[in-house]
Amino acid sequence: MATSIPRRTLLRGVGACLALPLLEIMSTERAAAQSAPIQRFIAFFYPNGTDPRKWNPAAGALSATNLPECLKDLGGFAAEEIWPAGDAIFQDVTAVTGIDHSGVCVDIHMPSMALSAHKGTKNNYTPAQPTLDQYLAERLKASTPYRNLALAATPSTDIGQGNISFRADGQVETVTRNPKQLFDSLFKGMSSSADPNAEKRSKRNASVLDAVKEDHARLNARLGRADQMRIAQYLESVSELEKQVANPTMTTSCSAPSAPTTGGDWHSKSKQFIDLLVLAMACDLTRVVTLQYSDSWGVNYSGYTIGSGKEALGTWSDHFISHKLDDTDRATDLDGLDRAEAQRIADARVVATSRFKVRRFAYLVNALKNVKTPTGTLLDEALVMYCSENGDGDSHARKNMPILLAGHAGGFKTGRSVAAASQNTGALHASIIQRFGFEAASYGSPAGKPIADL
Amino acid sequence: MSSSRSHSLRYSFGVLLALLSAGCSSEPQNHNRVGSGGAPAQPGSGSTAGAATGVGSPDGTCDSVTPDVGSSVLRRLSALEYQLTLQDLFQLPTPPNLDGLPADTEKDGFKVYADVQTVSAQHMRGYWAKAQELGAALMSDSARRKSVIGCEPSTSDCLKRFVSRFGRLAYRRALTTEEIDALAARAERDALDGNDRFQFVIEVLLTAPDFLYRTEVGAAPEGVSKLSASELAAKLSFAIWGRAPSAELLDKAEQGGLDTEQGLAAVVDQLLADVRAQGFYSGFFRQWLGYEAVRAPTTTVKGWNDALLPAMQAETDAVMKEFAWGGLNFLDALTANHTNVSKELATFYGLSAPDPNGAVTFPSSHVRANTGLLTHASLLGAKSDGDLIALRGDWLRETFLCQHMQVPAAVAEQLGEILVGLTRVQIVKERNSRAECRGCHAIIDPIGVGLSQFDRAGRYDETLDISEYGIAPALPDAASPAFGSVAELAAKLREMPQVSTCLTSRAFLYVNGREPAAPDRCTTQSAEQRFAAQSSNFPGLLRALLAAPSFRLRRSE
Lengths: 454, 557
Known about the structure:
The complex is a heterodimer. Chain A is of the alpha/beta class. Chain A has helices spanning 20-23, 132-140, 179-186, 198-222, 225-245, 266-282, 318-322, 339-369, 378-381, 425-435; strands at residues 40-45, 60-61, 93-97, 121-122, 126-127, 149-152, 288-292, 372-373, 376-377, 382-387, 403-407, 416-419. In chain A, a hairpin with a 3-residue loop joins strand 4 (121-122) and strand 5. Chain B is 46% helix and 4% strand. Chain B has helices spanning 79-89, 121-139, 142-149, 158-171, 177-190, 194-205, 209-212, 229-241, 247-254, 261-272, 275-289, 308-325, 343-349, 377-380, 388-401, 409-412, 415-419, 424-431, 435-451, 486-494, 497-512, 521-533, 538-546; strands at residues 32-34, 75-76, 213-214, 223-226, 338-340, 359-361, 403-405, 553-556. The relative contact order of chain B is 0.17. The interface between A and B is large, with 88 and 88 residues.
């Protein structure tokens, strides 16, 4: 839309731009006293699981000295390429070990089922019930301009590979795959100078939407039940759009950050998405976000120097590395080595990729933690979930999923590891749902009850 | 290369397929889902394309029955249809870009499944922004403005005339007087200035559901009913050209030009003869054969550069164009002994330089001789992440026989335990010996083994040893299954009637935005028969689908 469309925003980000260090100096200005604490949910998806033997911490408190190999960087890490150094966040994270996803997702490499706790699919690939983010977005009923955001650095539009967020009845949530497009939606048109024609323009644009609603009503009267249900979605989307373009009712507004660059690989896109989603949260433009770092096949570590000698990751894809030895999809440079040595190297590579994944999650967590709110930080308002489509990336087993929960929404306690062996995804989601204040004595199919102590 | 197409067999060694005691199983639908349970089917029985549980006359024949049609949902304009329609509406030399619009969702490689396409707030934002952009550009281009608007904007009745004229093209029907008056009055009242009245109208018309959805509703809101003349014109135009009908076609329809069988057939022929049909159906070939999804390799490939990707797609585009629109037998594309490649792609393949037009004919000793489509790198490379044996065997069955394999839930849950510690070769052997796996793998792996000497980038590598698997290359469905070369595989596949059945089903999907269902049996069966009777002529297949009596109908629930 035209850049002059006014925005409803809640925060003034003085000098805000996409660089996170500048975010640290931002402070939020809540427009009105909230009747209930603000709660946010973010799902961070990275494919191909991990090596659970080297990921799962023992139950109990996490400390800088007891982090398993894959989680070592929760204790802080150095800068690399586009990513800045990160502070220790283990004290803000709870690892949940042993979650069984296999009863829900009966297929391997199925990102579309990663946020579902319900078995059974529509279209063969998509959850028949809303995914966790959608469940929460629907119930939080936040007055934010964006009900939720679904972001993905993968260009794949395949329903099973390029999507992790689904509304009811298997309807795919529209995904933003280009950071520039997200920027345009969220921030383009924000201006510190007042538009003298704002009121007239606002009235005009409202009239455009009123006109299309009239057309909807005319069409709707001609349709049968199935078609009416289908175009009800149109009306819902117009309502969402109206919220997004409505006149600001607040006394302050966000300053638009500078536009991100276009193009880039999985990593640069994901970083731009993280920066923008944190800004969107800081501006309270939305409360629920999913970020898919990659589909199962694409992401690799070209451009990074990770590991040395034979252990170097080189240009192998994360998928190939996850399969270690023997698989057709493997890093074949280990073929012909002594078996034990090859196994050692393959294991080390999976530890290295897992650590990389954790560092990226930590970047997001640190970024949320660096945004101050009147009562604390964005991280205090949020639950941020790390998830994947598989548990053991090599075998595709989904009985030991890599789950990390960061943040303090609903008083969530962190800095620990909770053993949830043989408990299913329904139990995990029930625990999260309860944390957001909604009743979930059991949840999912197969059903699970909230995990004790989580 | 990795494909974005997703299904079970993409996955590495976790490929253990189901079997029932009778062999591989399938779901009772035209798009057979083999291995996931449902009614048993004989592998290779060809129970495809709506032939499973047809209705029609009591004796199962289709000659004298009342035409029937499966139920459908309102289709949202695809991104391509939207783009091409805007080009026509604004009389642009090329289609506008789609910046700001979400891409269409793919399922099984197709972007046309109507039921998975949505209209989100993000879509609405994109549609609105595009309408604003194109409206503003139009008003600042005096020549085009005159042609598109058709009157001088400052004259008294120009706005209403524009609403009527532009609205008819956008909505694919005549607007009522009330609609015209209401929209013009609203624009007069709320637009910012004189020119903005026209931009206002454009924004409304191009974000309204009557534009964004293909409102081919019929005469009754539920059940089966006949489309109106203008709805039929729109359905035809979208089905053949991928764009909204022209004013001339709407005129013809409203004057009764499509009311008769002959009239409809004549218009179908006219539209098919236009080059715009070829452009729209290049999308069909890319989605059906899967090469729309070909991507850069995820592993290092000697001689690779990213410019090869479009060159690979262009090779298959060229061959499909020749066999689809060149008056040839379409099925001969499976066994063609020639191709069309760029110089760079020829080098990548290890071929001698093509002639100036890109044509290459293979010597009889060449591995690609008489292998047609089956050895195109665009096709082989689009299925390269995962176990190539299972992937390619599955791809051939899914693409040409419409059989969809799926790992049964009970087996999938055990994969981690079953496969631990096994080598690549051991896993292939294991899945061909374990009772719960071999039913499906027995009909997939022998095909895949025969194609597995083509590497992940689609090049032949004679150093790859296929004997270690202990599986002889074969097309189990064929009368004489064993094959000693890909050319022999191609020849056997070419002769299978199921290929035509499957092609018909896929063309039906592209035309209708859904797979054929039981009530569509007579439509697909008749089209397949006509295709066979006309030497497998591709436009003939489309003609049969589009001029069928059922094409005039719509069933809503």
